[in-house]
Amino acid sequence: MYEQMQYKLKFDDIKASFNFKEDGGLIHRQGIKIKILPYTANDKEVVIDFRGVVGEFSRMICNKELKEEVDLIRLIEDVTDEIGEFEGTSSKETFKDIIRSMFIDNDRLVDFNIKTINYISSAKGDDKISKFLFSIFFDDELKQLVQEHYDRDVENILYKLVLNALPKLDENVTNKENYKCYIPFIKDLFKRDFKFLIKNEELFKNSLKRLLEFYYMFYVSQLALKLSEFEKADLTKPDAIYYTLGWESTSKNRTAFKFGWDNVKNYVNSLFSHSITLELLNHSGNEEQLGYKELYDLFCSGDESEIENELDILFDMYTKQIKDKSWNDFKYKDRNSGNKGFDKVYKLFEAIEFQFVQTSRTGAKNKYNKRFTDFVEANFAKRRGALGYNLNLTEEDIILFTKICINDNGKLKLSLLFDEFEKRGIFFDRDSKVKIVQLYEKLNLLEKKSDSGDAQYVRSIL
User: Fold this and answer.
1) Which of 172, 256, 286, 409 is the most buried (most CB within 10 A)?
2) What is the span of the domain harbouring residue 269?
């Protein structure tokens, strides 16, 4: 694939992009030559609540744009005007009360129809996350499916009245942000699960937010692990990340504690350094955004000594700009990738990590990674006293993902169901699996074909 490509770094472009100064210093820029994540070090807004993300994502997949928030008072008046004549003032006010109680809750429009998701307002931070998810997960195959379901006729007369009274959304074909989908198998899983949910409008409306939250968390946490494995990463299946359940107790001896959030967080803390490393390495004139595996394959197809020399020049260029750190203290792990040029990638990455420690730039790295860690700890983690945060799923999560994993099969063998969870990066230790089986028994979802655990089936409920 890479036989015809050459790897030659454009050093002048690097100096310009990273704002190299004559007396030393630079600006760590990323997301220009390769877009990996929707973060910058100076973002002020951390997106915790995905309600706005859902609204903007829905509009993007429908090619719609919301110019202004829905005026709920005006909406009630417009719906009332559609009726025309009323028998007296009291009947008119009664009708308004009905509309208000049915379609407005906590000063928000109720999502009574799939189309109303498009009227959920969003902030700038929400839009960035939405564009990221749209870019890495969505394609034309899903677009056709979305159109079929969002454009369905509405039979309920009252629903029709309210939908007609809502402001018309502008057409807006989204210019797709060119994020690199680093882990394609997660996109395939997202598409499968999205297709399943959208077939049931109620399930889709009630679950889209949690689906987007989960796949955002799934993708970024796996990305952190895969980047740490450089060229050796297996991009066809998830690395094991263990979850606990909200209704169970835990201890430090549990597998879910040893291979849960604390472990993932260690790798998340290097995301900014990886994004900068790949940004530097992608200043080679190639139009394709290259991850570590593609770079390794490209290096192996080229002149090893020439590429090694290119990386040596890049390393020297970079480290000479960092004046507030003593490079005499820099020690790196000598690793052998099988290609001398790629071995220098390890060294470059470790240099970038090193210069962030105890300098004025430490805060920038922490702010970048905080975009994700704060989200996870608010939405997918539970504080367990002295143990700190564990990744956590609720009963509602287990029920939803059980439906998603079983899909249209009606029921699934228990062992295969846990395999489906693991395909989505959700691993449980033995203790958690026992608790999940007990939940299925409580909900009467378990069919026991024999005394063997493997012969148990779990039914879906919609």
Assistant:
1) 256
2) 1-37+181-393
